[in-house]
Amino acid sequence: MLLRYKKTYEKIAMGLLSYMPGDKSVKKLQELIATYETDENWLLYLWKKEEDLIGLIGLEMGEDEYTLQHISVNPSFRGEGVGKEMVAKVQALFPDKNCLTTETTNAFIKKCTMKEEGAD
């Protein structure tokens, strides 16, 4: 289930963001969370499976598109399709917007697309 970020999820969100490539310093993670909390164009969602928050997906909203800025899944749950499911839920939330990626998130989206194409 996709849940909109709220302040009570801050430590969990920072932990999940730390699984992403790049600078994992506490200061950088706090700055990133602050951006999601203060900039109305940045949306952060967490993925809940049973009672645990196991993933997150972060978006920067534009007029006709959104950019997938962050996607992260707890390593214990990787390979179960959680990331792909989060992407599908976000696409369902914003069906009229195009999904753009960053250098970091592009590889994941390509991997999802290749699996879909290979399933035909």
Automatic annotation (TrEMBL):
Q: Gene3D superfamilies attached here? A: 3.40.630.30
Q: GO MF terms on file? A: acyltransferase activity, transferring groups other than amino-acyl groups
- CDD domains recorded: NAT_SF
Task: Give start and end of each N-acetyltransferase domain.
Answer: 3-120
Per the UniProt record, one Pfam family is Acetyltransf_1
The record's PROSITE patterns line, in alphabetical order, gives: GNAT (PS51186)
Q: Know the name of this protein?
A: N-acetyltransferase domain-containing protein
Organism equals Filibacter tadaridae
